[in-house]
Amino acid sequence: MKIRAGHCGAILAAGLLLINAGAFAGAVVTKGNKAEVGKVTEAGGAVHLKIKYGKVTYKKSKVLWFTTSSRISTFYGAGRMAYKQGKLRVAQVLFTYSAQKELATRQNARRWLTRIKKELRPKPIKLPMPETADSTPKAKSAKEEEAKAAAREKLKDNVIYNAVKDDLVRMERGKLKPYEDEALATAEYYALYFSSSRCGFCHQFTPGLAKAYKGMQRRYRGKFEFILMSFDREEEAWQGYMKQYKMPWPAVKFSQVRRCGLMRYFSGGGIPRLVIVDASGKQIAVGQNKAIEALQDKLKESKKEDQAK
Question: 57, 121, 229, 260: which one has the fewest Cβ atoms less than 10 Å from its Cβ?
């Protein structure tokens, strides 16, 4: 029985023998787009394949790819391995066999064939655009340097950025990761969140605050940022608190928070406590819900100003 392999652009060889899943280990794909699964061994200049009803031997010069992995017992599994190795043509042959002969993985094999077909398409060549006076490397470099200089000058007056620079971390998928200071530099307003895992009222307030933060991020991304200023006494409790509520905002490192100037300057009063400030350190609002409302009002004004420009 001949098998048509439309995706490979070749006619696959006849006499393909199905095997018992798990009985053998290994796969072979020949340069003639023929695939076999069985017990594969290598000796001299040949690759030997033991399948359920006999043995097959191929000269190495005729073999496109083979594996002796103990995990391989199906064409589908061999195709996955070939794909991981970057052998797209080989994977295409193996998934074609799987789509035609293995009922359990037929649909998945067809999806893999569609994916591989897209990846094998030649990518369009992008021709360089003609250079204008402003698009020459020198002009671009001068503009970039001017923009960087202006940004550095602006950051000199950003009290909040300079107070916490290099001292912020963020909880991502249950692990602490460094927070990129560049994301903080663009903010016009900051909400300093004074809180602790030992505070019952904080546990009541934090879930709603996280929800409000996410909603504001969708509307005013880049215009503001929250910063956790923790009163926790133990680092494990501090991390557990951030992880428990999946806090989406950065926090001052546990080892640095006591030394942080913002903690000393703005921490007066009870917790939970939000202190809204601008980049110059000017205090705008203090509290909980009222502080959030004040921040939202400021962000709305800033957005209107941007739209009017």
Answer: 121
Could you read off the pLDDT of 259-289 as tens digits, one per residue?
888 887 887 778 999 999 998 888 999 999 9
Tell me the pLDDT tens digit for each residue of 182-196. 778 888 999 999 999
Determine contact, residues 20/52, Cβ cutoff 8 Å: yes
Q: Nearest CA to 274 among 221, 215, 218, 212?
A: 212
φ, ψ for residue 55 (rounded to 5)? -130, 150
Handedness of CA 48, 50, 56, 61 (dihedral sign): negative
SS3 224: strand
Q: Could you please report the per-residue DSSP string of 111-139?
A: HHHHHHHHHHSPPPPPPPPPP-TTTSHHH
Q: Which two tokens stand for residue 211?
A: 């929800």
Structural domains in the chain, CATH included, are: 3-120 (no CATH), 157-308 (3.40.30.10)
For 266, list phi and psi in degrees, rounded to 5: -110, 0
- Closest to 119 measured CA to CA, from 96, 88, 94, 95: 88
Q: What are the backbone dihedrals phi and psi of residue 303, each rounded to the nearest 5 degrees, phi first?
A: -65, -40
Amino acid making up residue 67: T
The residue to which tokens 């199905």 are assigned: 18
Query: The pTM is what?
Result: 0.52
CA distance linking residue 106 with residue 99, whole number of Å = 4
CA angle (262, 263, 268) in 5-degree steps: 115
DSSP element (H, E) containing 55: strand 54-59
**CB-CB contact of 90 with 29 (8 Å):** yes
Dmax over CA atoms of the chain, in Å, equals: 84
* Nearest residue to 179 via CA among 241, 120, 119, 228: 228
Sheet architecture: strand order including 46-51: 39-43, 46-51, 54-59
